[in-house]
């Protein structure tokens, strides 16, 4: 049975030409216009890449720092020991602990958005892989979440740094701001994401790397963005 679209969604869809790839700024203005839910929606990007992540040399997992922030309040948990525990607390981590925190997480405590661990704790954190991996929360050096420099990592993630990865079908899903941001600020963040994806192109990616990019608000319709228009954009134009 086909789900009936709400009047709100029908009106939003009517504003979007499904056969058109919009210029980046126009797409983001349309994203804001079609975000008509009764709460401040998130701006999302969905990027289909020409990669097959089942091969290790075609996997994409990295971090992006959004110059305009994300508009999100990020709760950070840190697994460390000794002096590093105090260091993490002073740097603003909401949850800090050692073996006892690992036990809590193993019992189902997931009251955090990002988990950071010091390298010496990783052998113990490894047993959480089955729980954290599917949720994208497992600390990793590539993601900047395995580090001894806790103050910098905590500051970066609270300031707009975000980890992302391509899913098993080669699609990247990233939240890059709130619809309350100006279209220009959303464009600065989207450009930072595009540059990060290009800079971290997997060595095994052959042929056409970018297949498509769509943006949407969390409750709004998908809007296709012209890939060339985004990649050719200079930061001075986006700033």
UniProtKB/TrEMBL annotation:
Keyword Cell inner membrane assigned: no
Alphabetized GO MF terms: rRNA binding; structural constituent of ribosome; tRNA binding
GO biological process: regulation of translation; translation
The keyword NAD appears for this protein: no
Sorted UniProt keywords: Repressor, Ribonucleoprotein, Ribosomal protein, RNA-binding, rRNA-binding, Translation regulation, tRNA-binding
GO annotations of cellular component type: large ribosomal subunit
PROSITE patterns on file: RIBOSOMAL_L1
Coiled-coil ranges (or none): none
Domain of life (superkingdom): Bacteria
Quaternary structure annotation from Swiss-Prot or TrEMBL: Part of the 50S ribosomal subunit.
Biological role stated in the UniProt entry: Protein L1 is also a translational repressor protein, it controls the translation of the L11 operon by binding to its mRNA.
Family the entry assigns: Belongs to the universal ribosomal protein uL1 family.
PANTHER family, A to Z: 54S RIBOSOMAL PROTEIN L1, MITOCHONDRIAL, LARGE RIBOSOMAL SUBUNIT PROTEIN UL1M
Name recorded for this polypeptide: Large ribosomal subunit protein uL1
Organism expressing this protein natively: Stanieria cyanosphaera (strain ATCC 29371 / PCC 7437)
Chain's gene name: rplA
């Amino acid at each position: 049975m086909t789900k009936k679209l709400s009047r709100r969604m029908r009106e939003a869809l009517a504003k979007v030409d499904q056969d058109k790839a919009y210029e980046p700024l126009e797409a983001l203005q349309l994203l804001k216009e079609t975000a008509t839910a009764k709460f401040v929606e998130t701006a999302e990007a969905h990027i289909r890449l020409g990669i097959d992540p089942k091969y290790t040399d075609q996997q994409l997992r990295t971090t992006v720092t959004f110059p305009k922030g994300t508009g999100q309040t990020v709760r950070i948990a840190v697994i460390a020991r000794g002096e590093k525990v105090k260091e993490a607390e002073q740097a603003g981590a909401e949850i800090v602990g050692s073996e006892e925190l690992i036990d809590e997480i193993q019992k189902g405590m997931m009251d955090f958005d990002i988990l950071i661990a010091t390298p010496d704790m990783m052998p113990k954190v490894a047993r959480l892989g089955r729980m954290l991996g599917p949720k994208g929360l497992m600390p990793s050096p590539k993601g900047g979440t395995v580090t001894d420099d806790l103050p910098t990592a905590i500051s970066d993630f609270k300031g707009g740094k975000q980890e992302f990865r391509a899913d098993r079908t080669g699609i990247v899903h990233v939240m890059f701001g709130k619809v309350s941001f100006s279209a220009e600020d959303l464009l600065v963040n989207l450009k930072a994401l595009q540059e990060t994806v290009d800079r971290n192109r997997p060595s095994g990616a052959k042929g056409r790397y970018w297949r498509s990019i769509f943006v949407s608000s969390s409750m709004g319709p998908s809007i296709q963005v012209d890939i060339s228009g985004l990649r050719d954009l200079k930061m001075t134009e986006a700033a």
